[in-house]
Amino acid sequence: MDATTVPEQLAAPHMTSGALLVLVGMLLVAVILAAFAWGRHLKARAPAPPTPEEQPRLPEGGPVGDVVENREPDELPRTDQRRTPHELKGDGSRSRRGS
Q1: Which of 83, 61, 66, 36 is nearest to 28 (CA)?
Q2: For the CA atoms of the chain, what is the radius of gyration?
């Protein structure tokens, strides 16, 4: 065997590599189609969106439980130690005095 035949053999097209590419391509298309069909199946099983009659409505008197107030921040005492969340109280604000 001389040196010119080895590169020629390596560069020669192989029928199996072309068939393998076609097979991989067909497998990829099948996976994509199966994913599409599965997604449509899941969407068909999902409940329909509510109709306008099924939407929640406000009570006759309007919204209930609204509180309008001015709030001021809770001041933290100055310390050299860092505070952790469990050492803080409340939500960090309180009702404004005099209002």
Answers
A1: 36
A2: 36
Number of residues that this document lists for the chain: 99
Q: Flag whether the pTM goes above 0.85.
A: no
Helices marked H in 1-99: 5-11, 15-45
Per-residue pLDDT of the chain in tens (99 residues, 90 and over written 9): 555 566 666 655 666 677 888 899 999 999 999 999 999 999 999 999 999 999 988 888 877 776 777 877 777 778 888 888 787 776 666 666 654
Give the chain's end-to-end CA distance (angstroms, integer): 103
